[in-house]
Every structure is written in C-alpha cells, then in structure tokens.
Design goal:
Length: 527
C-alpha cells in the first residue's frame, strides 16, 4: 500500500483521482490518444475537403501552367492552347513564302477560315490593306490572314479582330540584293547591260528611285521592309518618325522572325502559338534562281546599308528582341534546336531528291523536286503559298459554313504522322491523375483512422469527439462497470487512511473522460 497525499485545489472545481501504473487505466489512455489522433483525419467536413481541393488546384496551376520561379522564367511543364487568330504580314524576299506555307498548312488541315484576296494570291504590294480587298465568305468570320498585304492595323482588326501579329525581317543588304534580282529591276531600270547591274544602281540609287516609279514593286528599291509594315517613303529619312514607327511595331507585333536565324525563330514561334514540332517542319519555297545573284563587295555592302538606313534600324531592333526571346526560352533551347534540325534532315531524306531543282516562273525561282511516290505528308510540306491559296479558296467555296471557333485538338481528317497528339489530351490526363491522388489520399486517411486494428480480443476504438455514440455499446457497458469497480475500491482505501473523513467530503462520481472524479477540496493519488 502507498501513503496518502492530500493537497488543496482552490483554483479549479475538481480533480481527477486514479491509480498510477494501473493497466486498465493505461490501456484506456492509449485508446483515447489513438482515438483523438485518428479523429483529426475522420472529422474532415465537406468545407475542409473543398478547401483542400482548391489548394491542390492552385498548386497544380502554379506548377504546370504558371511560370516557375527560377532564372529561366520557364514553366516546369507548358500546357497551353493554340492561338486561334493570326495575321502574318508577309514581307518581300525574306523567306516569307516558306513561313506563309507553314501557317497556311496548319490552318488548311485544321479547317479554319482564311481572309483571301478576291483574285490572285496577293492583296496589294503598294496600297495599305483595306477590308474591301477580302473575298467574303457566308460566315463572315476569318481567323487567319497570310497573303501579301501592306500593314494597316485598323482595317486588319476589322477582318480578324484580336489577332496575334507576326512578320519576318531580313538583313537589308541581302534583302535588297535579292529583290533587285528577283523583280528584274535591272531590266526595268535598263541596267542589264552592265556587268554588275546592282553595283551600278547603288552608284546613284536616289536618281533611279525618283525617276522610275512606273514598274511593279518599285517600292522595294529602298527600305522595302519598313514600307511593307506601313511607313511611306517620304518618312524614311526622318529618324524621329522611323524610331516612333519601330517602337509602335514592337508593341503591336507578338513575334518578328529573322531570316538569318530562321530555325531559331520558328522554335520561339512554336511556343508562342502552342504548336507541336511537326507543325513547323518545312521545305524551302521560292528559292531564287542562281543566275539572279550579284557579287557584293565590302564597299557595296556599306552603300546598301546606308541607303536602307530605316530598314537597318528596324532589323537591328528586332534581331535584338529575338535573342531576348531565345534567352527566355530556357536551357533546353539548344537541345530543341538540334532535335528540330535532325527532323528537318529526316524530312528531306524522306521527301526530296538530293541536289535537284526545278526552275519555274521564267527561271526566277527554283523548286525542290519531290521523290516519286511521295505521300501526302511530303506534298503538304512542299506546297507553297500559291498552291495553298488555291486549295483554301476551293475548300471555302465547297464548305463555306465553317465553324466560327476552332482548335487544332478537334478531330479532323489530317495526313498521318503530320501532327502529334495535342496538349489538350495531356491536360485532361493530368487533372484525372491529380483528382485520383486526392481521392486516394483522403480514403487512406479515413481508413487508417477508422480501422485501428488490434490483435486478440481488441476492438475498434476510433471515435469522433463530437459524437458521443461513436463507440460500441458493449464497450460502453464494460467501461461503466470498470469505472464503478474502481470507484468503490478507491472509496474504501480513502476511508482506510482517513477515518475522520466525512461522507460529504467524498462526493465522487464516475467520469467517462477523466476516470474517477472527486469534487472540490481533496484530490487523492494512490501510488
């Protein structure tokens, strides 16, 4: 037997009375602690569950869609939607036909409406675009504009509202030399008798610009690219106007490709448009005839750059912005570029006869030669803007009522192996996996709380603090009997040690939470 210890407890209404090292009491305490720990899991209300799901959705959004917080500023996994409205300003002699065919191929295979010229394959090379130049379709809805048109945004917005604007630029020296040969300016200016007509032109270009404005595309004799983008020749020597125009274009155009870095530009464009790698595969179009090239000396290059000062400013500005976008692309850029170029080589091996060209349009152009029996995959890559313009015009004539909204993820008849499974499928599967994981986590938590397995004659003892009937009725009866037995034993022991203790001082009661409870003045702990 132990000794009796008595103390005052004036700072609270009652005290607990229990036997130390009592196996029954200890087991009950263990069961109680287990019950409380599992009740934290089982007591998840629907509000808490909704809050948990919302938190998970936010985390998933930040990880998979929003930009990650790192130096590259790239998302860990890009899930995006393809751009639905595109206006491509096709500049002259800048590899613009190849880029145009890439965009037209995507739109043609996905069944979107194009804004086409009424006749031919160009709107106007000299007059600013006007909505009246567009061939109407019954739906009066256009999604893409790619044919040659001089940039004028207010009218273009009326045709394709809220579009993404892109264009392509080339080094002004190479662009002017190419345009001079392709558009036969030597014959138009009566310079074809000279050994190097382009060098003769650059001896006094202003004289030819002011005296001969009566032939096709004379506007390409000076600063042809910024002219295509809307700035008239009378402003080309005004640096303030030129700088303001370049600043405005940098805000209005989402992407400006650079011919000298065509593959790099296409990779950046792929991410902006949310396309797959296969969508930017290409075969070169409108290759200039080898007889229309001119020898460029260092002095001639300098003269050409000075003559095209406005184009040079424009080119240098957007060349710099391209490399900024390449840096923002992230550390995988070189890896993706190498992969893209490997795929281009595989396309050439599959589709093209090596080292063979076919001259077209009075020898100004040369075309790659398709292999005999090349399938639709190769043909769609080989088509240029003229072929696609006719295909699209015929398709819109036969099927004028195209859906006003489109997505490249919709099921449409496309050539095999031309497009890969879209990111929309990946997006759906990611959400399915996330929801399944949340459900499994919640079920595991509740099962672990409810199913507290014990060996032998043990029983489940997980209950909710707010639910008084959460444990078995037989367990409640056994517990009550045990408490009564302990109460009687403790009462007898108290009288044994302190016979003077009146009955009124031993007003004890069983308590389901704290064992035997002794009111107010005395607290007995036997050990």
């Amino acid at each position: 037997m132990g000794t009796l210890r008595q103390f005052q407890s004036s700072d609270y209404d009652g005290a607990s009375l229990k036997l130390r090292n009592d196996p029954v009491s200890d087991s009950n305490e263990v069961k109680k602690s287990r019950g409380r720990s599992c009740c934290c899991c089982c007591s998840l209300t629907w509000k808490k569950l909704v809050f948990l799901i919302l938190c998970s959705v936010t985390v998933v959004y930040l990880i998979f869609i929003g930009p990650s917080i790192n130096a590259t500023r790239q998302p860990l996994l890009t899930l995006c939607f393809s751009v639905e409205r595109i206006i491509y300003i096709k500049t002259h002699k800048t590899a613009s036909t190849t880029l145009s065919s890439i965009i037209q191929r995507w739109g043609y295979l996905n069944g979107v409406n194009f804004a086409l010229p009424i006749n031919g394959h160009t709107f106007s090379p000299t007059v600013r675009f006007n909505q009246m130049m567009v061939k109407p379709v019954p739906s009066r809805h256009y999604s893409i504009l790619t044919n040659h048109a001089r940039y004028y945004r207010p009218e273009m917005e009326k045709v394709v509202p809220n579009a993404l604007y892109i264009t392509i630029l080339r080094d002004p020296t190479a662009q002017l030399e190419s345009a001079f040969g392709y558009y036969k300016m030597a014959q138009q200016l009566r310079l074809d008798k000279y050994k190097n007509p382009f060098a003769k032109f650059m001896d006094d270009p202003q004289k030819y610009l002011t005296s001969r404005r009566d032939f096709h595309l004379w506007t390409q004799m000076r600063n042809g690219q910024i002219f295509d983008l809307g700035l008239d020749h009378r402003f080309h020597d005004n640096d303030t106007v030129v700088d303001a125009k370049i600043e405005a274009l940098s805000k209005e155009f989402r992407m400006v490709l650079i011919t000298e870095y065509f593959d790099e530009s296409l990779l950046v464009l792929k991410n902006i448009l949310c396309w797959d790698m296969d969508n930017i595969l290409y075969l070169s179009n409108s290759i200039r005839g080898r007889t229309l090239h001119y020898r460029m000396s260092g002095d001639l290059i300098k003269k050409t750059r000075d003559w095209n000062k406005a184009d040079l400013k424009l080119y240098e500005h957007f060349n710099s912005s391209l490399w900024t976008k390449i840096r923002d692309y992230g550390p995988n850029f070189e890896k993706d570029l190498a992969k893209f170029r490997r795929e281009l080589e595989l396309v050439k091996q599959r589709c093209i006869v090596p080292n063979r060209y076919r001259a077209i349009t009075d020898f100004r152009e040369e075309r790659l030669v398709l292999k005999r029996g090349a399938g639709s995959f190769c043909k769609y890559l080989w088509f240029g803007d003229m072929e696609y313009t006719e295909l699209i015009r015929e398709k819109q004539r036969r099927q004028p009522w195209l859906p006003p909204q489109f997505s490249h993820r919709q099921s449409r008849p496309v050539p095999a192996n031309l497009t890969r499974p879209s990111s929309g499928v990946v997006f759906v599967w990611v959400w399915v996996i996330v929801l399944c994981l949340l459900a499994l986590c919640f079920m595991s938590c509740c099962l672990a709380a409810v199913c507290d397995r014990r060996s032998g004659d043990d029983y489940l003892d997980c209950y909710d603090d707010d639910d008084e009937a959460s444990y078995d009725l037989n367990d409640e009866i056994d517990r009550e009997l045990e408490l009564r037995r302990r109460y009687m034993a403790l009462l007898q022991n108290a009288r044994h040690y302190d016979h003077s203790l009146p009955d009124s001082k031993l007003s004890c009661r069983p308590d389901s939470e704290n064992g035997i409870h002794l009111d107010k003045k005395y607290d007995y702990d036997f050990y």
